[in-house]
Amino acid sequence: MLKKNIQILDSTLREGEQTPGVSFTVPQKLEIVKMLDAFGVDFIEVGHPAVSADIYKSIEEINKLSINAKAIVHCRLKREDIENALDLKMSWVGIFFGTSQNYLFDKYKIDEKKCLEMIKEGIEYAKDNGLKVRFTAEDASRTDRQFLLNVAQVAEKAGVDRFSIADTVGILYPEKVSQIFSFFVKKLNIPIHAHFHNDFGLATANTLQAIQSGATCVDVSINGLGERCGISSFSEVTMSLDELLKVKNDWNFKLLNEISQYVKNITNISSNDIMPITGKNAFTHNGGLHVASVLKNPSTYESIRPNKINRENTFVIDKFSGKTALNHCLKKLGIKTNDQIVDRALIEIKTNPQITNWTDKQLSSLIEKLNN
Ligand code: HCA
Ligand code: CU
């Protein structure tokens, strides 16, 4: 068991809303915040107030809620953004600034010295005004290690509370994550946050590795929403921390599926049936041998119990089904039959491979037909 307390920062309302095609209404944001708080996340990144009037307004409304999670706003390294945070009476700001050569020379057109000065000034301004500050080195994964260390040390000296390492373009893999995070954990005295994009499908794996290498707060979003291929998924990360790394926590897993479904329903992002944990098929069994075994003992083909997140097992009847599965489904439907009919029904099912999921109605009529 990993004894350290791991914090979760949910960025559905900030990074998640940057998903192409996604825009939440204020009531939807309030609902998401309430659900995340009831689940027990530590931080909720509520948005970047400078982006639009509706985001600013939603933060004002979120601030009226009484929640345990800490709300944090996104800010550029600019006074006007920090002032927004002060006007909104925030306690926490997340200031981000790109630190790789690409960003310095092409995006901002400044040199390293100027970059360090700006970081120092921005953090000091926020701290002098009583804010708690997380500083994110955007594109940290492509930033020269020594320069990133300078950045982190300047930030720490300026009084920053948390340092976040962002893999903005999603190019890290666990071994590299281990090298980077172990290095910074040794060098800094403040908690380190991690933010991974999923461009290679490695965001969750990288997040787990960052924790094993000493990061203490990780960014996630519901259903992995975010720019391009999104970031680490809320369900994948929390479930892996609980089930695999055995991290001590008091998260309310019974709410996990509901949160995922709520966000799925209000976004136009096509849902992935085979998505881990909250996907439609996560607790569905198909193969005849699988169903027969799961009915005896679910752990034969499952690592997580569905009732942990308020779900149930489902079984699919199609050409892969066996007698046990069919009998089980017929019994559940309250259809009384006999061995011979079940055998004949199975032949019918296996000779209709185009039907990939026999519905209750189809099964009932099949049995009725065979009875006559
Ligand atoms: C962005 C980029 C960001 C910032 C992360 C952070 C990234 O959309 O502004 O501020 O913690 O991936 O670097 O999401
Ligand atoms: Cu990001």
Architecture overview:
This protein is α/β, with parallel strands linked by helices and about 375 residues long. The protein has two domains: about 5-265, TIM Barrel (Alpha-Beta Barrel); about 285-370, no CATH class. The protein has 14 helices and ten strands. It has helices spanning about 25-40, 55-65, 80-85, 100-110, 110-130, 145-155, 175-185, 205-210, 235-245, 255-265, 290-295, 325-330, 340-350, 360-370; strands at about 5-10, 45, 70-75, 90-100, 130-140, 160-165, 190-195, 215-220, 285, 315. The strands form two sheets. Strands 1-2-3-4-5-6-7-8 form an eight-stranded parallel barrel, surrounded by nine helices. Helix 1 (about 25-40) packs antiparallel against helix 10 and helix 7 runs parallel beside helix 8. The mean pLDDT is about 95. The site of copper (II) ion (CU) has 7 residues, from loops.
What's the helix and strand layout?
Elements: E1 7-10, H1 26-39, E2 43-47, H2 53-63, E3 70-76, H3 79-87, E4 92-98, H4 101-108, H5 112-128, E5 132-138, H6 145-157, E6 162-167, H7 174-187, E7 192-196, H8 203-212, E8 217-220, H9 234-243, H10 256-266, E9 284-285, H11 288-296, E10 314-315, H12 323-332, H13 339-350, H14 360-371
Parallel strand pairs: 1-2, 1-8, 2-3, 3-4, 4-5, 5-6, 6-7, 7-8, 9-10
Bound molecules: 3-hydroxy-3-carboxy-adipic acid and copper (II) ion (CU).
3-hydroxy-3-carboxy-adipic acid is lined by residues 15, 18, 74, 94, 96, 136, 138, 164, 166, 168, 195, 197, 227.
